[in-house]
Design goal:
Layout (H helix, E strand, L loop, with lengths): L1 E5 L3 H13 L3 E5 L2 H10 L4 E4 L8 H11 L4 E6 L4 H9 L4 E4 L4 H15 L7 E3 L2 E4 L4 E4 L2 E2 L4 H12 L5 E2 H9 L10 H15 L7 E4 L3 E4 L3
Parallel strand pairs: 1-2, 1-3, 3-4, 4-5
Antiparallel strand pairs: 6-7, 7-8, 8-9, 10-12, 11-12
Length: about 220
C-alpha cells in the first residue's frame, strides 16, 4: 500500500520511511506542507501520516484539504501537539487515528494494520480464499498447508485484490497501489495483465482460481465470501 509521510523533521521522516519500507509499504516523504499538498493533488495514497507542526502549512488545514481530495486514504496524525483540543479537531476533520510524539514504530504499524482491517471489513489479518490462505504477517500464501511460491509483487497484487474483495479494480488502481505512483506516459496496461496471468498460473498449480475474475473493460475482481 502507498503511504505519504508528511513530516518536517527529516531524520524522523526517514526513520519512519525505512521502517515502513521494511514492512512492505510503498513510501513517499514530504517535508513541507506545500510539497505534500501537490503530491496529494495528483496521487492516490492508502495512508497519509501527517505532522501538524509544519513550517509552511497548518496541519489541520492540510488535513481538511487532503480529506476532500483523497477520499480513500486513511489519515493518522503524528504530532507533538498532543492537547485534547488538537486531537478533537483532527478527529472531527476526518483523521482516523492520532499518535502523540514520541511514539513506537511498532505501535504505528499495528494501528495501520487495524485501520486497514476496518477499512476493508476484515475481522482478522488472515484471508481465506478458495482453498488458499494468505497471511500478511508472514507474507505467505498456502494451500492446504503447502506454501505457494509467488514473488513479492505477486503477493502484494493478490493481497490488494483480496482486501478489495468483490470490487472491480482497474489496472491503474492495481498499479498505483502495488507499484506506486507514476507519470502518465509510463503506464502500460498490459503490465498488469502479464502479472495477473503469471499469478493465476502459479496458483492454479495448487487449486482452481475461478474466483479471480477478469472484468471486461475494467480490470480484475476477487470474488470471495
Amino acid at each position: 500500500m502507498n503511504v505519504l509521510i508528511v513530516e518536517d523533521e527529516k531524520s524522523l521522516a526517514q526513520e519512519i520511511a525505512d521502517f515502513l519500507s521494511k514492512e512492505h509499504y510503498l513510501v513517499e516523504v514530504s517535508t513541507t506542507g506545500m510539497d505534500a499538498s501537490e503530491k496529494i493533488a495528483v496521487n492516490l495514497y492508502d495512508f497519509i501520516l501527517l505532522d501538524l507542526g509544519l513550517p509552511d502549512y497548518d496541519g489541520l488545514d492540510l488535513l481538511r484539504e487532503a480529506r476532500e481530495i483523497n477520499h480513500e486514504a486513511a489519515f493518522i496524525i503524528i504530532t507533538a501537539r498532543g492537547e485534547v483540543d488538537d486531537r478533537i479537531k483532527g478527529l472531527d476533520l476526518g483523521a482516523d487515528d492520532y499518535l502523540a510524539k514520541p511514539f513506537s514504530l511498532a505501535e504505528l504499524n499495528a494501528r495501520m494494520a487495524a485501520i486497514a482491517r476496518r477499512k476493508f471489513g476484515m475481522k482478522t489479518n488472515h484471508i481465506q480464499f478458495g482453498d488458499f490462505l494468505l497471511d500478511p504477517l508472514s507474507r505467505k500464501v498456502t494451500c492446504q498447508d503447502i506454501e505457494v511460491d509467488i514473488t513479492k509483487k505477486q503477493f502484494d497484487l493478490l493481497h490488494y485484490l483480496l482486501l478489495s474483495k468483490n470490487r472491480a479494480l482497474t489496472r491503474m488502481q492495481l498499479y498505483e497501489h502495488v507499484w506506486g505512483n507514476l507519470l502518465g506516459d509510463e503506464y502500460d496496461s498490459n503490465f498488469i495483465d502479464v502479472h495477473i496471468k503469471n499469478l493465476r498460473k502459479k496458483l492454479a498449480e495448487y487449486a482452481p482460481v475461478d474466483w479471480l475474475e477478469t472484468v471486461r473493460g475494467v480490470g480484475y475482481r476477487a470474488n470471495i465470501d
